[in-house]
Amino acid sequence: MFNRVSSLSLCGIVAVLFSVPTESFAQSTFVSIPKALQGYYTLEMVNASSLSPIQNTSPTNSADDILLYVTGYGELCTKNKNSGAVDLLASAPSLQGDEFGNVRWDVPSLDLSLSLNINQIPFAGFDLLSNSGSAFGKLTGSAPTFDNGSCGSPPFNTSSSNTLFNLAESTYPTFFPSSSFSYNQIGSGYDVFRHYPSTDTYLAIRDEVVYARGGDFGDKFIVVGEVDDLIDNINTMLVPNRLPTFYQGTYLLELTEAQPFSPLAEGTTLNFVVTKTGQLCVGELALSFPVISNNTAIWSNSNGNFRYTVDLTRDDDPDTVEANIATGEFLFQSIGGTTYGLFTGDKTSLATECSGAQGTDPDLSNINTLFSTIEQKYPTVFPAGPQTYNQKLDGYTFRYYFDSQVFVLVKGGVVYLNGGEFGNNEEPVPYGTLTNILSLLTSSTLTPTVPTSSRGTYAMSFSSSTLFSPFRDGTAALVILDALGNLCLDGVPLGKPIARQSSPNLAIWENANLGLSFGLDLSTLSPTEMSLSVGSTNGIAFSTLSGDRTSLQSTCGGNVVTDITLANQLFALAEQYYANLFPASSLSFSQSNGIIILRHYPSTDMTIYVEGETVSVTGGSYGSTRVTVGQLSALIAQITADNTPAAPIYDLKITGTGEVIALSTSIRQTVDIKKNGVELPDSSDTSLLAAFVRTSFAGTLPKIDSISISSIVNTSTQLVFNAAVSNSTTIGSTTTTRSYNLVYTFSKR
Asked: How many other CB atoms are found less than 10 A from the CB of residue 618?
């Protein structure tokens, strides 16, 4: 941003403008600039406000002149007085108001905007504004010196585009009526387009592909051809053809005469809909408009490599025509003309809406809100474009984003993802419910309070990773939470958290550069443990990050304080279990510089370093350069687990007698049960032994009224104790009692 100074050289301003990277400018729709306003401007600053970063200049001092260059394609440039070099400043002004209003160039990084009234000729000056719209003053001067060149990337080939537009206007004036209101414009994502207000139709070009939208073409951009092909033969343009009205309606047709190589089987039944504009919908797929030639209409789907053909020849006999109205015949072919079969059947209704064939999703309104919201919030992942529109298949309502190769699908109130950065899976992967995702996307934010009792350093690892996750299960990470709620992940500061209205107890830290989001449920906090949900900033679930607090060190960034207790524990374990590398002696002791704690082992010339949670080693096979071997807490846990003897396994034998009394009848039972490979219960507490006994009766007795443990004998190889178990149950007027006197014998293997 400019700093306000009392006498800032305009050459200096231009130099600052040169330094702004063009990548920072957002692309937005703008109109072509009239010839009278194209070229080089020599400008002065007048009527500067007290807040203006540029002060009034003197017309007599040419050193303060501002030199600007405006091309016919809306590029705004600056010119260096000394070298004469022209550099792009902004390439995409936005249209303010109607098509005859102002265009405005925004420079967000400088908090400056320049506005030009393109309907006011002769030139009346540029308004200088802040990005928020505050008026700073005006840049005035004479009309520009005309030049139709380019100050940025080369302009689109106007010769071919104008040829195409002129051919379309002369060949299809019904759709593209030529007038002074229709002229070349440039928009975000399009090389050039024209708007025809009287038909509310657009004709656009992008990457040599021609698109149309509005009017009879519908509310979505559709491909109508390629530039070179249409210039060679404009009659091949896919435009809404006015088929005879008796072809309009909904048909239920069955595939007959299916060939062995047909992609659809004999007997396949589909709904066909011919709209009022000639568009064809088949099943859940919307095709484009037909090409009509020699009384034949052809609807094509290049992505599916097939087409449908209808013979438009009709008998003039009214009775015959009337009879034919109720039937339909569509030849099913490949794009190349290979016949797959014939769809035949009856017209079932006069409905001409494609929804009649596709069905209407009850969540359609929310689905459209989802699509529009993610396209607005995350345009890199879900880039809107003329080839992206609602489609239906197998019960899914979906959009395919061609630039990122991503599918977003909704079925049964569940949102699915596939393709692109989400992986090419055989089946779409469910992400979450439509309701929850919309709530997450549209809810406003709050400022949560993270308890100071949770501050400290945590040794954590990733788990439960999804297909989308960039983190593998078991990957270690060091997380620091300070007293102000700031979070650091492996030294990367994530700042303070936010919360959403829909989930006020979920603290969320986001990092746009990393594209990551971390969530902490404040309602389930533990003083010594932490669990974070990990996902992308656009709402994709990745994994869970969990672990224990290792110290109260809570400096988020800067020098990390190492927990000396844990460091000494690691040294002791290394000396105990890896004595050949790290032999304990009076010459090996902990040393510290306040940040790093280390131990050097002279006899092997090896050294262990601990810095925060990071452990590294030098010497021996590790060489003279420090090699990271893991995280402090994770290494302690791993070494301990690897060297902890496995708990001994015991075989259990349960013997004794039992008695069941019911209806004044006594039944005696002998108990002899063997179980192999059981863990030894803790014999120091009879309640624990009783719990084991209760578990051993699970599924045998509906309930146990009492358990009595006695005669406990525990040796190095055996545990023996007696258990008296009893219960009674009453069903109607009958009471049944059970009692067992048992001996539990555990024998070590």
From this structure: 17
**134/26 same-domain check:** yes
The DSSP 8-state label assigned to residue 264 in this structure reads S
* CA of residue 650 relative to chain centroid, distance: 52
Closest C-alpha to 167, from 228, 78, 83, 252: 228
Q: Give the burial class of 233: count Cβ atoms within 10 A of its Cβ; 0-12 exposed, 13-18 middle, 19 or more buried.
A: exposed
683 in Cβ contact with 712 (< 8 Å): yes
CB 553 within 8 A of CB 560: yes
**Nearest 10 degrees: CA dihedral of 116, 118, 120, 124?**
30
Backbone angles phi, psi at 668, to 5 degrees: -95, 145
Tokens standing for residue 477: 């990470």
User: Which residue among 303, 331, 358 closes a domain?
Assistant: 358
Task: Please say which residue of 419, 441, 463 terminates a domain.
Answer: 441
Q: Which long-range contacts (CB under 8 A, 24 or more apart) does 705-710 make?
A: none
What are the tens digits of pLDDT across the range 36-62?
A: 787 888 889 888 887 787 888 888 887
Q: Given CA atoms 338, 341, 346, 350 in this order, what sign does their dihedral have?
A: negative
Task: Tell me, yes or no, whether 220 and 339 share the same domain.
Answer: no
Number of domains, the chain: 7
Torsion of CA 689, 694, 700, 703, to 10 degrees: 150
What is the β-pairing status of strands 650-662 and 665-678? antiparallel
pLDDT at 373: 85
Q: Is 185 exposed, middle or buried (0-12, 13-18, 19+ CB in 10 A)?
A: buried
Could you tell me which of 741, 739, 730, 732 has the C-alpha nearest to residue 667?
739
Render pLDDT for 681-736 as a digit per residue (tens, 0 to 9): 888 888 888 888 888 776 566 578 889 999 999 888 899 999 998 888 877 677 88
Which range marks the domain in which residue 74 is found?
Answer: 10-141
Q: 9-18, 200-209, 345-354, 677-686 — which is least confidently predicted?
A: 9-18
Name every residue whose Cβ is closer than 8 Å to that of residue 373 and which is 6 or more positions away in sequence: 438, 441, 442
Q: pLDDT per residue over 575-591, tens digit each? A: 999 999 999 887 787 77
Rounded (10°) angle between helices 564-577 and 632-642:
30
Contacts 24+ apart (CB under 8 A), 83-88: 86/151, 87/18, 87/151, 88/22, 88/151, 88/152, 88/153
478: β partners = 459
SS3 569: helix
Instruction: Judge whether 247 and 274 are in contact, CB under 8 Å.
Output: yes
Task: State the pLDDT at residue 17.
Answer: 31
**Within-domain flag for 559:** no
